[in-house]
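Long-time lurker, first post.

We've been arguing in lab meeting about whether NAP would sit comfortably in this protein at all. Half the group thinks yes, half thinks no, and nobody has a model to point at. So I'm putting the question to the forum: if I give you the sequence and the SMILES, can you give me back a predicted structure of the complex? Inputs are below. Any interpretation is welcome too.
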Amino acid sequence: MEAVDILLEKWRDRGLSIDAGDNATAAAADVVVLATPWDGATQTASSVEDQLRGKVIISMANALTRIGKEFEPLVPPRGSVAASVQAKVPHCLVAAAFHHVPAKELGDLNHPIESDVLICSDHVEAGRVTSEIVSKVPNMRPLDAGELAMATPIESFTAVLLQLNMHYKTRVAVKFTGVPEPEAATGVASVDGAGADGKTDTKANAKAKVDGKDKGQAAKGTASA
Ligand SMILES: NC(=O)c1ccc[n+]([C@@H]2O[C@H](COP(=O)([O-])OP(=O)(O)OC[C@H]3O[C@@H](n4cnc5c(N)ncnc54)[C@H](OP(=O)(O)O)[C@@H]3O)[C@@H](O)[C@H]2O)c1
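Top reply:
Settle the argument with this. Predicted structure of the protein with NAP, as tokens:
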């Protein structure tokens, strides 16, 4: 059974609009979420580079390894997975986001997870679109974490969260205090003054998860925002 069939069956009452597809199909979406293990991210993106050209790509991969009982961050080329992807597919607008959100809890539609989502990008449009998607998830707050260089500490910090999960036998999420609500929090695009009113003209009405090696099989988990 495909992952998409499991999701449709599980959330039958939600009327989800999701389809399975290979990476090329996923890359045809308006906004693409790159959610492979860290060491497959650049190759996966470059394999569908033509379809991704000019689009917002949301990179959520964390370069981590487990050594004994410890999770340790790795440092990929250019400091982060997101920056590596941006360098590999330079005609795309890469934003880094969702690194700290536990997937299982995010996928439980009956119990919204309360979490901030740090977003960083070198492209105002990518930050704005990503922020808009995050805003649509109940109890989630997008936060502008600056340029793509910030992906290095954001990705690395995930090791700390995994360590906490192990120690406290739980699944933690991140919530920051002291951030003014709500205008500043929605203002990823307000870095340069654009879109600070929170109005959207984005075409981001679809996103997809590029989550398989491009070997022609149906990708698991093409998902809507
Ligand atoms: N799980 C979480 O809670 C969470 C939260 C935030 C961020 N992340 C990040 O999101 C990414 C995906 O996490 P996950 O838990 O979904 O991982 P996963 O289940 O291990 O892998 C996700 C998908 O990546 C594909 N894949 C595996 N190896 C690949 C390769 N070498 N090249 C291209 N695709 C490959 C797999 O497709 P096939 O089965 O078809 O091979 C799988 O469907 C990771 O980088 C993780 O750090 C995860």
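For your lab meeting: Strands lie at 31-34, 56-59, 64-67, 70-73, 93-96, 115-121, 140-144, 207-210. The two ends are 23 Å apart (CA to CA). Whichever side wins, do check it experimentally.
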